[in-house]
UniProtKB/TrEMBL annotation:
The keyword Nucleotide-binding does not apply. This is Sulfurtransferase complex subunit TusD. Its main location: cytoplasm. Gene3D superfamilies: DsrEFH-like (3.40.1260.10). Keywords: Cytoplasm, Transferase. Belongs to the DsrE/TusD family. Pfam families: DsrE. PANTHER family: PROTEIN YCHN, SULFURTRANSFERASE TUSD. SUPFAM superfamilies: DsrEFH-like. InterPro entries: DsrEFH-like, Sulphur_relay_DsrE/F-like, Sulphur_relay_TusD/DsrE. It comes from Alteromonas ponticola.
């Protein structure tokens, strides 16, 4: 069985990259010969974790799509804390600590560092980036 890790660096509505990434993740979850270890959101990809994003009219809700993948496959959705903070994607804890008006990062997304992601890559056979 091959173990996969996914790296998402594309913003939610930049062409079809994210939709393709979600289809790939679904295929891995459905495949008994594969194991999807985690999905790490980095650079502009952290925008996928914004719970307040509203999709354009007639477009698929990317945020809900990631939540469904996490629930179906018990997949860890990890968001780079540094890249997220630069883009206003903050947790409840960061909101409280910095006296900010609201938070945009909620479960099943979780904050983590880039070093943690690299450590987890040792358990993956393949890394796929979108």
């Amino acid at each position: 069985m091959l173990t996969y890790s996914m790296l998402i660096t594309s913003a939610p509505y930049d062409g079809d990259r994210i939709r393709n990434a979600q289809q790939f993740a679904h295929a891995l979850v459905d495949n008994p010969e594969a194991n999807l270890l985690n999905i790490f959101f980095y650079q502009r990809g952290v925008l996928n974790a914004n719970c307040l994003g509203i999709p354009p009219s007639g477009r698929f809700n990317v945020y809900k799509g990631w939540c469904e993948i996490a629930t179906r496959g018990v997949i860890s959705l990890q968001v780079c804390i540094t890249a997220a903070g630069k883009r206003g994607i903050i947790s409840q804890q960061e909101q409280d600590e910095n006296d900010l008006p609201g938070h945009t990062l909620q479960a099943p997304f979780q904050q983590t560092g880039l070093a943690d992601f690299f450590t987890q890559l040792h358990d993956a056979d393949r890394l796929v980036q979108f």
